[in-house]
Write a structure and sequence with these properties.
The chain is mainly beta. 7% of the residues lie in helices and 33% in strands. The chain has a nine-stranded mixed β-sheet. It is globular and about 50 Å long.
């Protein structure tokens, strides 16, 4: 059976483990946590991500007005567990027109957030978090700061929350206005939440 997976950092197809190495390999990045095809925006899609998630699976909740959940993806295999999670959403840009949003949680070095944002990565890089924070997320009544990461066409925020990197990536960049107010987040691994999620069509921002 051929299992197709791509590199979370560059999107290239990667090589499956062999008899000599248990890791997936990218020609460019060496050993990586493989990214399998995106999971459908459905309860089953979410459950399949939650089953192996070793990092938070963040969702803005309550959802901003008119926003829908548009799919999931995770980096990692059965051996490692999912070390990078991404939740995709779409909805109205506060400044007009449609917008897309990805929320990523990952261990250092995975590179999923930077990869999805089109940045070299894997982590936010030198000089990150040197100045005043640019936004805030709120998790269980605690606020955590995020900083803007320089980027061309999207708004990219990153910070460290609950022991993992958190990335918030918005297209177009003007949709960064969503973070004018602190963004409340829930970790979907907490099954007690039992949220009734509104699902939309699969986000084009997630790798096939
Ligand atoms: Zn790569």
């Amino acid at each position: 059976m051929v299992v197709r997976a791509v590199c979370p950092r560059c999107g290239r197809q990667v090589h499956a483990p062999t008899a000599w190495s248990s890791a997936w390999r990218c020609d460019l990045h060496g050993e990586i946590y493989p990214l399998f095809p995106a999971r459908r925006p459905s309860k089953d899609g979410l459950d399949s991500l939650l089953k192996t998630a070793m990092v938070p699976v963040w969702l803005p909740w309550p959802l901003p007005q008119g926003w829908l959940v548009c799919g999931f993806t995770g980096a990692g295999d059965e051996r490692t567990g999912t070390r990078g999670s991404a939740v995709a959403l779409s909805g109205p840009n506060p400044l007009g027109g449609p917008a897309d949003l990805l929320i990523v949680a990952e261990d250092p070095g995975v590179g999923l957030g930077a990869g999805l944002a089109g940045l070299p990565g894997p982590d936010p890089g030198d000089g990150f978090a040197a100045g005043q924070p640019n936004a805030t997320v709120k998790v269980a009544n605690h606020e955590a700061p995020l900083w803007l990461v320089e980027s061309d066409h999207e708004a990219v925020f990153a910070g460290e929350v609950a022991g993992s990197w958190l990335w918030v990536v918005l297209w177009p960049d003007t949709a960064g206005a969503l973070l004018v107010e602190p963004l409340p987040l829930r970790d979907l691994r907490n099954r007690e939440l039992d949220l009734d999620l509104p699902f939309g069509a699969l986000s084009p921002r997630l790798p096939g």
